Amino acid sequence: MMRRSMTVVAVAAALSLPAMTTANPELMKLMDDPNNWAIFGGDYAGTRYSELDQINTGNVADLQPVWTFSTGVLRGHEGGPLVIGDTLYIHTPFPNNVFAIDLKDQSIIWRYAPQQDADETIPVMCCDTVNRGLGYGDGKIFLQQADTNLVALDAKTGKEIWKVKNGDPKKGETNTNAPLVVKDKVITGISGGEYGVKGFVAAYNIKDGKRAWKAFSVGPDKDTLIDPKKTTHLGKPVGADSSIKTWEGDQWHLGGGTTWGWYSYDPDLNLVYYGSGNPGTWNPVVRPGDNRWSMTIFARDLDTGMAKWVYQMTPHDEWDYDGVNEMILADIAVGGKQRKALVHFDRNGFGYTLDRETGELLVAQKYDPAVNWATKVDMKTGRPQVVDKFSTHKGGQDTNTKNICPAALGTKDQQPAAFSPKTKLFYVPTNHVCMDYEPFEVEYVAGQPYVGATLSMFPAGKVTGDGSTHLGNFIAWDASAGKIVWSLPERFSVWSGALATAGDVVFYGTLEGYLKAVDAKTGKELYRFKTPSGIIGNVNTWSYDGKQYVGVLSGIGGWAGIGMAAGLTGDTEGLGAVGAYKSLDKYTQLGGVLTVFALPD
Amino acid sequence: MMRRSMTVVAVAAALSLPAMTTANPELMKLMDDPNNWAIFGGDYAGTRYSELDQINTGNVADLQPVWTFSTGVLRGHEGGPLVIGDTLYIHTPFPNNVFAIDLKDQSIIWRYAPQQDADETIPVMCCDTVNRGLGYGDGKIFLQQADTNLVALDAKTGKEIWKVKNGDPKKGETNTNAPLVVKDKVITGISGGEYGVKGFVAAYNIKDGKRAWKAFSVGPDKDTLIDPKKTTHLGKPVGADSSIKTWEGDQWHLGGGTTWGWYSYDPDLNLVYYGSGNPGTWNPVVRPGDNRWSMTIFARDLDTGMAKWVYQMTPHDEWDYDGVNEMILADIAVGGKQRKALVHFDRNGFGYTLDRETGELLVAQKYDPAVNWATKVDMKTGRPQVVDKFSTHKGGQDTNTKNICPAALGTKDQQPAAFSPKTKLFYVPTNHVCMDYEPFEVEYVAGQPYVGATLSMFPAGKVTGDGSTHLGNFIAWDASAGKIVWSLPERFSVWSGALATAGDVVFYGTLEGYLKAVDAKTGKELYRFKTPSGIIGNVNTWSYDGKQYVGVLSGIGGWAGIGMAAGLTGDTEGLGAVGAYKSLDKYTQLGGVLTVFALPD
User: Fold this and answer.
1) Residue A325: which of A225, A257, A414 has the closest Cα?
2) Which among A98, A107, A542, B317 could disulfide-bond with A112, CB atoms 3.0 to 4.6 Å apart, if both were Cys?
C-alpha cells in the first residue's frame, strides 16, 4: 500500500496543473491510486473493488468506527463519498448539499448548499429524494442536482464555476444519478420514468458546461444517435428508425427509457455503458410493440455519443423492470474463452454477461431462484420467454395479476454490485420480493404522475412465525457460468452498494443499518456494526496517512424505504413498496450519517 | 459489578408488582443498581456518578462505538437515555418522540409519537426545541412534551396511560425539562421566561395525573407555598408576602422565575431542590426591586410543596442569569465540618455550596476567572457585589453596556455537572463567553416575546490567529474550597452533561461532536471520538449482560447552537448566541444520534 505522503504530493501536483484539454490522465491517475476513491464505482469499470488489503479476513473482526459525520438531512442517502488525497467529498439527498471534509481533523473545508425549488422538484421525485453522488475531474467537483442543474464546483473552495440546466422539473424531469467524468466531458442522465419523461444521456464540456451531445433512448435515429447500419443489436445492424418502428403511432414521444442509473466507461474501446428505464406508462396494454430502446443496455462512443451497440433486455416491459442498473466491466473467461465482458444484474432478475466490445450475449441466468415472470432468455433472440400467467398485458387492464417475481423494484435496483478480480466473483445486493400488478388507463399531463398501474409488494421468502421477513439476499455470482456461488439471506432487501477488496473482505449494508463484512470466498460473516440508520448508501474504502478506512452513508429511504422517508402509509403513493417494508421502523429511523471505520492503531 | 442476569430478575419483579402507593422503593432500588441509569441525574442527588468501573483510566483508550441509533429528528438533542434493565428509553426534541430500545439487538420495542401543534409551540420556544429527557417510575415512562402535556406511558408497551396539560403555549408556556419521579408524584416545571411566563413547579399523582400541588416562584404566599414564619432565607424567616413586596405594584404578575432546569431530591429530608429563572423582561430598569423569588434556589417539601428555605442568588437580575441549573447533593466537608451540601453552578458565574438542610450559604466563588459583573458574594447577605460599569440597570435603557462576563447564557447553562465521591471533585462543563447588553422598553402581549434587551456574545478568551476560539472550559471544582482544581480549554462551550465514574474516568461531549474521556484526578485526555453531530446531550453509563456501556446523544442545537438548529443568521433572533458560535458549522452539522460505546470483547 502506498504511503499517504506520496499521494499528497501527487494530488497537489495534479490540482495545480494548468487547465488540461482532457481530464483523463489526471483522473485516471487518481483512480489508479487505491488510496483514493475518485469515482463512484471505484474505477471506470464500476468494479467497486479496491487493491487495499490492510483490512483483511484475518483482522476485519477488529474493525471499529473511528469517526462519524451527520449530513443534517433526513431522507434516503444513496451513493457514497469520493476521496481525493486528503479530502473527502460527501453529498446529501435533496437539497443536495455538498461537504468537503479534511481527513486530518474531519473539519468542514467548504459546504455547497444549492438553492432549489422544493415545491417544484420534490413532488416529481417518484422514489425518495435521493442523490447517488458526485463526480471529480479537472480540479472540479460535479454535482447533478435534483432540479436537473448540473454544477461544477472548485474542488478546493466549493465555489461554483459553471451550472447548466439538464432538464425541467415542470415536465417531471429530475436527476438522482451521479455524473460520470471522462476525458473533457461530464456525462449525465435524467430521471422521471413515472412522469412520462423521455430519457436521454447528455455530455457536457467540463470546462464550461457547454453541451457536446445528447442522445435519447427512444425516437428517430437523429435523436437516439443510432446509426442504422453501424449500430448493432446482438451483432446485427438495427436498421432505420429502429426505435419508433416498435411504437404505435407517435407514442414514442412518451417513450420513457430514462437514464437515472450508473455509468461505466472502457478507455480502450472509448465506450460509455448504461441502461435505459421503463417505457412510458406502466400500463403495457396501451403501448403495443417492443418499445425500443427502453430497457436497453447502450454502448456509446464517448466523443460523439453514437451508439455502437444496444441490447434490449425486456422488450415491451409489463412490470417496470428498468434496465438502469450498473454495468460492470470485467475481463473474465466465458466458455473457456477470455472476454472483455460486461456484467449486469437487471431488475428483471436475470444476470447478463455480454461481450462489451460487440454486444454479444454470452450468459443470461436468473440470479434469484424466485424469478418467475420468464422461464429463461432465448440466447439467439435475446428475448425473455414470458410466462403467460405473469404477463400483466395478457392479464389486461384493471385486472390484478398476482404473485409476479420479482416485484417492480426488481431482483436488484440501483444498489451496485462489486467484482473481485481475485475471486472472479460478483457480489450482488439483491431483493427477494414479489408483487401483484394491476394496469390502468392513465392520461399524460406534463409534470403529473404517469404511472398507470397499482401494485403491492410482498416477500418472496416466507414470513416466519415471529413475523420476521426474508426480503433480500446478498449473493456471490459466477458470471461466467451464470450461477449463484453462495447466498446470505437478509431480513430486508440489501439496498446498499457492495465493496470488494484485495483483503478478500466484501462489505455491504442492510436496511436495518448494519455494515457487514463477509469472507469473499465463503460469505462467512466476519464483522457487523449497527450504524445510526438503515443503509442504502454504498460502501467505499480509501487510505489516509497509511491507514485503510471503510466508509458508508446510512440514512434509510430510497424506494424500499419510501414509506419512512416520505411518511407514507399507503402502497399507492409508495409505488407498492410501503407494505413489504412496513416493519422497517421497528429497526431504524431516518437520519443521514457517514460512518468511517478502521482497525485499531 | 452485578451480573446482568440478576438485574433482569430484579426489574422483572419490580415491573410485575401490583400498583404501589408509592413509587419510591421500586425506583430507589432501580437507581441503586448501577447497571441501570434510571433517572436523568443518575440518582436523586443528581451526581451523574456511576459505581461502574469496568471502563477505567487504564483501558478507556480502547473504548469504541458498539452501536448507534439515529432519532430521525434534526434539532438540538439535550438530555440522555434512561436504561432500566434490558430496555433503553430515548427521547427526541420536538416532536418529542420516545423510543424503547431492546438492548439485546437494538430493535425498537415501541415508539411513542405525540401529536403536537408545531405552529403554536415552536415559535414560543426561545432557545431551540430541546427536551431534556424522560422520567421512570411505577412501570411508567413520563414524558413532558413541549406543548406542556405531561404524559404517562406504559413502559412495556408505550401505550398512553394518562395525559395532563401543565400549561398553555398560547401564553408562551412550553416545557423542555425532564420530569422528576418521587414517591407517588411526578414533578415538573415550566419554560417561557422570554414570554412573560410566571414560573411554577407542579406535582402530579403518578397513578392518574391528578395535580397534588402547584407552587409559583413569585406572587403571594398562598401561590408560592411559602410560610412567612417557617420558610427561611439564609436562616431567617422570609416574612409575609416576601415575593410581592420586592416588586413594584402588580409587576409580579409578569414576574418570571420559570423552572425549566433540573430537579434533585433528598429522601432523608424529603426535600425537592431546583432553581428559578429570570424575572420577567430582561430590561431591569422597568422592574425595580429584588424581584423575589426569581433567580432563587428552592427547597420544597415533596408531599406538600411548601418551601423550607429559599436563597436568591441574583437579586434584581440585570443579565438573564437564570438560576435553574442543577442542584447536586453531596455530603462533603466544608471548613473541616461534614455537611449535607448542595452544590450549584449558577449562570451568574458563581459556584455555590450550601447546607441543603438549612439553606445556609457556605461557599460562593467564581468558577471562571473571567466573571466580572460582581466582585464577590457577601457571605452574610448572600448578595453579589455588583460592579457598576457592568450594571445594565445603571447603564440604562437603550444604552449598550459592554464586555460583561459571563454572557446571558452564563458560565454554565443547563449542561449538568457531575460529582465523584471518590475524588470529591465536581466536573463542570462551562461557557467562557462575554456580552454587550442593551435593555429596551417592551410591552407584554400574551404569547409574544417579552425579552426587552438586545445582546451580542463573544469569546471571553482570545480569538487566536487562526480564527479558532476559546469559548469554554471543562473544569474540576473543589466545592469545599471554592476553587478550580484543573481546567481544560475548549474551542466551544461545553454544552454536554458530564459523567463521573468509579473507574476514575470523567466523560463529556463537545459542540464539535467529540465524546471525550479524561482522568478524574488530572484532567488528562484519555480518549476522544467524533460523534455524528455536536454534543449538547448528557453522557450516561449502564451495564448490560456484564458489560459497561457509555452512551451520549449528539445533535447540535440548544441556545449555543440555535443559529444552526433554527437556521438563524442574526443575533437578535438567537438571543445573542449566533455570532459567538458562528464557526460551529465548520465542524458539525445537524442530526440526532445516540452513540453507545464499550470496550472490545
Assistant:
1) A414
2) A98
- What is the C-alpha to C-alpha distance for residues A232 and A234, in angstroms, rounded to an integer? 6
Bond preceding residue B293 cis, omega within 30 of 0: yes
Mark yes or no for CB contact A532/B532 under 8 Å.
yes
Q: Provide the ipTM.
A: 0.93
Q: Among residues B582, B576, B579, B575, which one has the least CA distance to residue B556?
A: B582
Smallest CA–CA distance from A107 into chain B, residue: B587
pLDDT given for residue B466 in this prediction: 57
Pull the grid cell for residue A318.
409489463
> pTM to 2 decimals?
0.94
Q: Point out the least confidently predicted range of A185-189, B14-18, B447-451.
A: B14-18
C-alpha pair distances (Å), B494 with each of A36, A98, A250, A286, B373: 35, 28, 66, 64, 22
Torsion, Cα of B305, B310, B314, B316 (10° steps): 70
Which of B593, B594, B595 to probe by mutation at the A interface, max A CB count within 10 Å?
Answer: B593
DSSP B151-197: EEEETTT--EEEEEE---GGGT-B--SPPEEETTEEEE--B-GGGTP
The C-alpha torsion from A524 through A530 and A532 to A535, rounded to 10°, is 20
Residues belonging to chain A with any Cβ–Cβ distance to chain B shorter than 8 Å: 62, 64-72, 74, 99, 106-108, 111, 513, 529-533, 554-555, 585-593, 595, 600
pLDDT number for residue A462: 67
Cβ pair B426, B344 in contact under 8 A: no
Q: Which residues contact A479 (CB under 8 A, 6 or more apart)?
A: A330, A332, A334, A341, A343, A351, A353, A363, A426
In the predicted model, is pLDDT for residue B15 greater than 90?
no
A533·B70 Cβ contact <8 A: yes
Phi-psi group of A79: left, alpha or beta (phi > 0 → left; psi -120 to 50 → alpha; rest → beta): left
Lowest-confidence range among A4-18, B140-154, B439-453?
A4-18
Active site residue B208: no
Close Cβ partners of A109 (under 8 Å, ≥ 6 residues apart): A87, A100, A101, A102, A158
Give the mean pLDDT per block of 10 residues along chain A (601 residues): 43 45 75 97 98 98 98 98 98 98 97 97 95 97 98 98 98 98 97 96 98 98 98 98 97 96 97 97 97 98 98 98 98 97 98 98 98 98 98 97 97 98 98 97 94 94 66 97 97 97 98 98 98 98 98 97 92 86 95 98 88
CA distance A436 to B344: 65
DSSP alpha helix (H) spans, A221-335 = 221-224
Q: Are B358 and B334 in contact (CB under 8 A)?
A: no
SS3 category, B259: coil
Return left, alpha or beta for B392; rule: phi > 0 is left, psi -120 to 50 is alpha, else beta: alpha
How far off is chain B from A528, nearest CA to CA, in Å?
A: 10
pLDDT above 70 (res B48): yes
* β-strands A82-84, B540-544 pairing: unpaired
Q: Rounded to an integer, what distance in angstroms lies between the CA atom of residue B593 and that of residue A13? A: 39
For an interface test with B, the pick among A59, A70, A527, A601 (most B C-beta atoms closer than 10 Å) comes out as A70
- 8 Å CB contact of A592 and B592: no
Question: Using omega within 30 degrees of 0 as the cis cutoff, is the peptide bond preceding B95 cis?
Answer: yes
CA distance B91 to chain A (A): 13
Would you call B600 and A62 a contact, using CB atoms and an 8 Å cutoff?
Answer: yes
Among the listed residues A326, A297, A316, A329, the one whose alpha carbon sits nearest the alpha carbon of residue A217: A297
CA distance B422 to B294: 35
Q: Point out which residues pair with B405 in neighbouring strands.
A: none
Distance CA B333, CA B341 (A): 9
> DSSP E strands: which ranges in B369-471?
374-377, 384-386, 401-404, 418-420, 425-431, 433-439, 453-459
